[in-house]
Amino acid sequence: MLVQKYKNMLSGKSVIRQLSEFATARGQEIGYENVFDYSLGNPSVAVPQEFTDAMIRLLQEKNPMELHGYSPSLGITSVREAIAASLEKRFGIPYRKEHIFMTSAAAGAIAHALRLVVEEGDEVLIFAPFFPEYRPYIELTGAKLKIVPPDTETFQINFTAFEEMLTDKVKAILINTPNNPSGIVYSTETVQKLADILRAKSAQYGHEIYLISDEPYREIVFAGVDAPCVSKFYENTMMCYSFSKSLSLPGERIGYLAINPACADAETMVNMCGQISRGIGHNCPPSIIQLAVCDVLDKTADLSVYETNMNLIYKELKSLGFTCVKPGGTFYIFPKALEEDSIAFCNKALKYDLILVPADSFGAPGFFRMAYCIATEKVERSLAALRKFVETEYPNR
Amino acid sequence: MLVQKYKNMLSGKSVIRQLSEFATARGQEIGYENVFDYSLGNPSVAVPQEFTDAMIRLLQEKNPMELHGYSPSLGITSVREAIAASLEKRFGIPYRKEHIFMTSAAAGAIAHALRLVVEEGDEVLIFAPFFPEYRPYIELTGAKLKIVPPDTETFQINFTAFEEMLTDKVKAILINTPNNPSGIVYSTETVQKLADILRAKSAQYGHEIYLISDEPYREIVFAGVDAPCVSKFYENTMMCYSFSKSLSLPGERIGYLAINPACADAETMVNMCGQISRGIGHNCPPSIIQLAVCDVLDKTADLSVYETNMNLIYKELKSLGFTCVKPGGTFYIFPKALEEDSIAFCNKALKYDLILVPADSFGAPGFFRMAYCIATEKVERSLAALRKFVETEYPNR
Question: Chunked in runs of 10, what are the mean pLDDT values of chain B (397 residues)?
Fold first, then answer.
C-alpha cells in the first residue's frame, strides 16, 4: 500500500553514488589520498572566515528567542532586502524584497519555480547535457520533461532542435549556466538568441514561457569568459540561486529564488511561493543561517583553485589527444571518451584509481565528467595516472 | 499563466496572522508589554545553553569542509543512530537508524509521511479541533481531507463519528497529541481504542491504514497526565517530530520522521523518503544544526513556565465561569466563548488588548485558543484585563 511511483524510483541506482562508494572502498584499501576521485561536486575550499565569525557572533550576542524564533515564511525581511540590494547593485535589475523568496538551496528554489508555472500535462524543456536531478524535480510535479539534444561542438544551445521542440505545450525552460556537467558558460549571443526566441514564441502562442535559470555556479567563472546575467535578457526569468558553491556550505542548504521584477505578476509569484511551501513541507532556511549568510552576501570562498585545477587538467587532456571544450566556469570538465561507450571507458579508468563519471545520465553519452573540486596537489598527481591509463588502454588513439 | 490553485490560496487570509498584525500595531501605540498577545505559538523560553555551546564548538573546532559539506539525503548517519537509540531507550521500541529520516521540522516530516502512503483520490482523516495547516498539507498532495467532528466535552476522539467516516477509501489518519489547539493529551484508553479500530478496519478492508502522529509538543506534558507513546500501540505508525518547541528553536527547522520498526516495509519507507525529497525540493536539515541538536537530544529548554501559566489561566477562566477542559500539555488552552459566535467574542476582547483566537479555522466554532507561551508576569497582568472584559461585556453570563 506504499505509493508505487516512489517505490519504483528506488531501483534506479545513481552512477555517481556507485562510483563514490567505490572510491570510498578503494580509499580504505590504498589510502584515500591515492584515489583520484573526480566523482562528486562537493566544494574543496573552506567557507569564508567571516561566515564562521558571523555565526559565532549571532550565537553569543543575539537574544536566543529572537535568533531561533520563527521567521516569516518568505524569509527574514532584512535578508530579502539585502539580497535584493546586492543583486540590483551587481546586475542593475531593480530587485526589491518583494521579488526574493528564501529557499532550501537551489533544489528548493527550483521546486517552487516549477510549481508557480507548470501543472500536470505541461511540458518543460531542458538542454543536454544536464544535471540528472532535473528529471525528478520536473517529473514529480506531474509535468512532462523533454530534453533538447546537445550541441557537442560547443555545448552552447542546439537552437535547431530547440525551436522544433518549443511547442505550445511548453510552459517553462530550465537552464543551468555555468553548466553542470559541461563547465560551459552560455555566451551573450546564446542568451540573447534564447530570449528572442522565447519572446517570439510567447507572442505567437499567447501565453508566457518562463525561463527558470539555475545558477549555483554563478560565482565560479574563469578569467576573460563572457558570463551574462540571464535575467537581464528576458523578463519572465526566475533566478534560482544557492550559496552552496560560492560560500562552500552545501550542507547548510540555503539559497533563494529571485523573480525578475519585469515579470508579469512578480510580487504575486513570491507570495504564491509561500502557499506552495505549505503543500510541499518546505520551510524557509534556518534563521541563523539566513542571518549569517546575509553578513557575507558579497563574499565568496577562495574559488581560484578551480581555475588552477581546470587549466592543469585541460592542458593534459589536450596533450593526450582528447576532444574537450574548455570550461568557462564551475568545477567540471566534460571531455569526449576515447571509445564510443563511455561507461566502458570509465570502468577501465578505475584500474588506475581514476574515478570518472560517464555522461549517459547527463544526456550526453560518449562523454564523461570530471569534478575537479579537489586539492591541486592531488590533481597534479592524478595526471600521471591519467597519462598511464590512456597510453596503456588506448595506445592507438 | 500562473498555476491557479496556489494563486487562489492567496485570498484566504489567516486569522492568526491578522490578529498577530493587530497586536504588533497596537503594541506600537501602547507598548507591546501592554498587549496581552495570546495569538502565536512561538516558544517564550531560551534554547538550552548546551545547544549554543555545541554550535560554537562545531564552528570553532571542526574542519569546515566536513562541517558544511553535503550530508546524506536521509540525514547524517551518526545523528540518525543517536535519535534511534534515544527513542529506543525512552519508549522501548527497537528503532535503528534505518527507521529515522531527518526533516525540515514537523512540516517536512508530515509532507513525506503523507506522500509515502496517499495519492490523489485517497482520503485522510483528521480530528477536530486541528492545526489549520493540516488542510494544505493534505489537500496539496491531491488526497481528500475529511474532518471528524470534535468531542467537545473532553476533546478526546469522537469515536462514533470516526467509525462512520473510516471507509475503505481512508489510507491514513493524522493525529496530534498533545494537541494544538485544545492542549489535550490523548489518554491510553483513547490511543488503545484508536489502534484497535484501525487494526480491525485494516483487516476488514485488506489494506494498511497508516497512523501519522504529529508530536511537536511531546515534551510539554503537565504533572500527572497520562501521555502514552502512540507508536507503542499501533504498528503502522509514523512519528513526526520537531525540536521547535522542546528546544525552543522553531526558526531552525529541524525534526525527523520515525517509522515504527514493526511497520511493514519500514526500511523501504525511509529510503522512499529520499526519493520523495527529490520531487518536492526538500533537503535534509542543515548539517551543523543536525550535529548540534544531536548533542542535546535528551535535553529540553526549561518548559516549566508553560504549566505555571496554564494553571494561572485555567483557574481564572473557571472562576469567571468559562467552560474549559484542563490542558494536559502544550502551551494552549481552549475554552468555550461566552457567546455562540466566537469571532464576535474575540473581537470584543480586542478592546481590552486581549488577543484571543477564534477556533473556527481549527474546526471547533464557538471555542477560542490562547497560546500562553509568554512571560508569567504578563499572564498575571492579563488576568485583570480578562476579568474586566468578561464582567463588562457579559455581565449576565
Answer: 91 81 91 94 94 98 94 94 98 98 97 97 97 96 97 98 98 98 98 98 97 98 98 98 97 97 94 95 93 97 97 98 98 98 96 96 96 97 98 93
Q: Is B275 helix (H, G, I), strand (E, B) or coil?
A: helix
Topology alike, domains B4-47+302-393 and B49-295: no
For A284-322, how does the pLDDT look when each residue is reduced to its tens digit (9 = 90+)?
Answer: 899 999 999 999 999 999 999 999 999 999 999 999 999
CATH class of the structural domain B4-47+302-393: alpha beta
Chain A, nearest residue to B111 by Cα: A281
Q: What's the Cα-to-Cα distance from A231 to each of A64, A92, A131, A208, B284, rounded to whole Å?
A: 38, 10, 21, 15, 29
What's residue B344's pLDDT? 96
Q: Where are the domains of chain A?
A: 4-47+302-393, 69-294
Classify A203 as helix, strand or coil: helix
- What residues of A are in contact with residue B111 (Cβ under 8 Å)? 279-281
Q: What is the grid cell recorded at B39?
A: 495569538
* CA distance linking residue B197 with residue B98, whole number of Å: 28
Residues of A within 8 A of B64 (CB-CB) are 46-47, 52, 248
The DSSP line for A140-160 is: TTTPEEEEEPP-TTTSS--HH
A200 CB within 8 Å of a chain B CB: no
Measured between alpha carbons, how far is A282 from B281 in angstroms, rounded to an integer? 8
Q: How high is the ipTM of this complex?
A: 0.95
Residue A327 per-residue DSSP state: P
Peptide bond into A181 cis (omega under 30): yes
Domain B49-295: which CATH number of 3.40.640.10, 3.10.100.10, 2.40.10.120, 3.30.70.3270? 3.40.640.10
- Residue B213, H or E segment: strand B210-214
Q: What is the pLDDT of residue B284?
A: 87
The pLDDT of residue B264 is 85
**CATH number belonging to domain A69-294:** 3.40.640.10
What confidence score (pLDDT) does residue A17 get?
78
What confidence score (pLDDT) does residue A41 get? Answer: 87
**A128-142, A256-270, B6-20, B25-39: lowest mean pLDDT where?**
B6-20
CB-side exposure of B340: number of CA atoms within 13 Å? 0
Å between A314 CA and nearest CA of chain B: 26
Identify which of A47, A70, A141 has the shortest CB distance to residue B68.
A47
- The CB density around residue A187, as the number of other CB atoms within 10 Å, is 18
